[in-house]
Structure formats: structure tokens, C-alpha cells
Amino acid sequence: MVRKIEGASRIPVPGGKVIDEHVGRVNSGDEAVSIAHMTAPPGWEEPAQTPAFTEYTVVLRGTVLVEHAEGTTRVDAGQSVVTSPGEKVRYSVGPEGAEYIAVCLPAFAPRPQDATDGGPRAGIAPGGGE
Predict the structure, then answer these.
(1) CB of 55 within 8 A of CB of 49?
(2) Residue 27 · residue 8 · CB < 8 Å
(3) Which residues of 87-111 are buried (b: 16+ CB within 10 A; e: fewer)?
(4) 3-state DSSP call for residue 83?
């Protein structure tokens, strides 16, 4: 069955980053995948966290920096990065900000913050449960 999705749902997060979910639990009711358009202002950063999903990130504009156990991976416009569930990561952007598409498997769902991580990505996990 073909489903047209008329628009995105804006998911509020702190720090000035904008998340517009096109496909996923919040906007379309899909639990298997979420696809969101992200816009982060210059210098934006978030605390380290350990998401419970695989995330595929395609950078459209600017630079996304991903800190992880092996160092920091710089991802420029036209490049992509993949992070695995259970991997501690910290996302930030360069001085010009960044625009990117994030695809999460399974779909993320808002939930209360994890006590161990405390970041906005830690508060998003499969199923939305605690």
C-alpha cells in the first residue's frame, strides 16, 4: 500500500537543534525505522550517550563530528556515518552548523532520560519504554 506523508512532526529538543521527523513512531506510526531531517546551529553539541539503535547519518550541509571510543570522526557535506546500538557517542557540529538526515533502525521514540547518559539521544530509544 502506498502512503503519502504530508509533512514532518517537529520533535522538541534542547540546544537549538531542530528535528523534523518524516517517518517514524511520532509522525507516521512506523516502528521499524525513523527518518528525520535535522538542523543544528553553529557550535551545537550534546552530551555523550549510548543509543539503543543503529543510526545512519547523511550530512547535507556543514560538518557533523562524532566522538566515540576510537576518537572523533569528522563527517562533511556529502559524506555519511553509521553508529551501532550500544556504542557511546557524542555528536556536535562545526562553527557553520549542519543539516543532515538521520535514519534510525528501529525507530526512535521519546522517553524519559536515561540516568547514566542524560543526553537528548539517550532519551530516545526503541519502543519508548523505560
Answers:
(1) no
(2) yes
(3) bebbbbbbeebbbbebbbebbbbeb
(4) strand
Give the number of other Cβ atoms within 10 Å of residue 70's Cβ. Answer: 7
Query: Cα separations (Å) of 56 from 3, 4, 34, 106?
Result: 23, 23, 10, 11
Distance CA 111, CA 120 (A): 10
Cell numbers linked to 66:
562524532
**Contact predicate 65/75, CB 8 Å:** yes
The pLDDT assigned to 121 comes to 47
The low-confidence residues of the chain, meaning pLDDT below 70, are 110-130
What are the CA-CA distances from residue 37 to residues 19, 44, 72, 82, 114 (Å)?
6, 16, 23, 16, 24
Q: Count the helix, strand and coil residues of the chain and give each as a percent rounded to the nearest 5.
A: 5, 50, 45
C-alpha cell belonging to residue 25: 513512531
Mean pLDDT (the chain, rounded): 87
